[in-house]
Write a structure and sequence with these properties.
This protein has a 5-stranded mixed β-sheet with strand order 3-2-1-4-5. 46% of the residues lie in helices and 15% in strands. Helix 3 packs parallel to helix 9 and helix 6 crosses helix 7. The chain has one domain: Ribonuclease H-like superfamily/Ribonuclease H (Nucleotidyltransferase, domain 5, 2-Layer Sandwich). By secondary structure, it is α/β, with parallel strands linked by helices. Helix 5 links the parallel strand 4 and strand 5.
Length: 220
């Protein structure tokens, strides 16, 4: 009601809700996301991690730390270590791995360089390492089934043997991803209130955009 004199129209909850599936709004936010990254500049040193967002107020990390089932949606975000900004955002209703591939694809489409990358053991398979090749240094810790990790682990093992301290120091910068998720959920909430999948994806993109916007203000 307070906004009606400004817009010369009645703005209801449904009016705002429909914006989450508006293609023009999505295009504007996507372009702003790119412009923020280009304006700040990214280092190419990345970290990435996934998390779960609940779609109900009764499910959260404390009551269900496994974050599995249809009441959770999977999100993966790729973060630049220098700026603390997200450079890739992935969302999936199926698995965290799908969200991971979406985030990589988004960073690739934007033209973000990746020189180094830190991931947790969920992404330690040889199939994941094959995505990056020899030019990208991937810091990751293997799962228990180390005998099945494949030849792609040769370069990783060589780096560990050369200097375990330097390798682990670089790897544990991954905790910045967890700090980013904590920052986001404290400020913007850990619940996706949209019901349609396209609007849920849009809500996740909005959180990533707002995260980057707040980090610019912190730096300035």
């Amino acid at each position: 009601m307070l906004l009606q004199p400004l817009f010369d129209t009645a703005v209801s909850y449904k009016t705002v809700e429909r914006l989450y599936s508006d293609e023009e709004v999505m295009l504007v936010l996507h372009n702003l996301f790119i412009l923020l990254l280009k304006d700040e500049g990214v280092s190419g040193d990345m970290t990435g991690d996934g998390t779960g967002y609940s779609v109900t107020v009764t499910k959260h990390y404390r009551s269900d730390p496994q974050k599995k089932g249809r009441d959770y949606k999977y999100v993966f975000r790729l973060m630049d270590l220098k700026t603390g900004m997200y450079v890739g955002n992935g969302y999936s209703t199926i698995s965290e791995m799908r969200a991971f591939h979406q985030a990589l694809e988004m960073a690739k489409d934007i033209g973000i360089p990746i020189n180094t990358l830190r991931l947790d053991k969920y992404y330690s398979s040889h199939k994941v390492l094959q995505l990056f090749g020899k030019d990208i240094s991937v810091y990751v810790i293997p799962k228990k089934n180390i005998s099945k990790i494949g030849l792609e682990w040769t370069n990783v093992i060589r780096k560990i043997l050369e200097s375990p301290y330097i390798y682990m120091k670089a790897y544990f910068k991954r905790n910045l991803s967890e700090s980013g998720f904590s920052f986001d959920k404290r400020r913007f909430g850990g619940i996706i209130r949209q019901k349609r999948e396209d609007r849920q994806s849009m809500a996740i993109l909005c959180i990533g955009f707002l995260h980057n916007l707040f980090f610019i203000r912190v730096q300035s």
